[in-house]
Amino acid sequence: MARKTKQKSFLEKNFHYIIIAAVALIVGAVYLNRPGKDAAAQDVPAENAVMETPSQGRMAPDFTLTSTDGKTIKLSDYRGKVVVLDFWATWCPPCKAEIPDFIRLYSQYKNDGFQMLGISLDQGGLGDVKPFMQEHGINYPIMLGNDQVVSAYGGIRGIPTTFVIDKKGYVRAAFEGYRPASTFENLIKQLTKE
């Protein structure tokens, strides 16, 4: 009987903590299931992107990084081209889901003033990225990211995070989470004509 009284006393004593924990779990579940968080399963229209225009004055932060083949890549060297800049990692399912589309888009539009660039945020560096590139036939430059470039682009809260940059170097769209190829293709077609 004493044992039953202790259990009841414990529940009564900690009831408010149990309620707080339950609310936290519910809020966490809602947060994790918000649009853009679940990878390849969602097709979010381009209208949900953060759209910016040159008149807002947000230039894409310049950077100098080394590609997986040892070349120095500077974003400003691509001025005059539309650039899709993708922050990703080899272990990220939605990142992997976008890569075949990026390969196709780069092949299709690279001669029309388009440049695809990837920034890997893999902790394993070249040891993780180079074999992945070979296995998946990635045909565009991939660089290894660092804290400076992540910070310059707003602290990258989730991956993939992808920026579409116009010919003048202005960020015209930013996406967090998986997006279908049509989202990027429509922007590439529009911005290469401007």
Largest sheet report = 6 strands, mixed
What percent of residues adopt helix (DSSP H or I)?
Answer: 40-55%
Q: Strand order across the biggest sheet?
A: 1-8-7-4-5-6
CATH fold-level assignment of the largest domain: Glutaredoxin
The SSE order reads HEEEEHEHEHEEH
Q: What separation lies between the terminal Cα atoms?
A: 81 Å
Question: According to CATH, what is the class of the largest domain?
Answer: Alpha Beta
Net shape: globular
| Residue share in β-strands | 15-25%
- Count of domain modules: 2
Mean pLDDT, nearest integer? 81
Class computed from helices, strands and strand pairing: alpha/beta
CATH hierarchy: architecture of the largest domain = 3-Layer(aba) Sandwich
How many strands?
8
Q: Radius of gyration over alpha carbons? A: 22 Å
Query: CATH superfamily of the largest domain, called what?
Result: Glutaredoxin
- Could you list the spans in which at least 5 consecutive residues all have pLDDT below 50? 21-49, 51-56
Per DSSP, the total helix count is 5
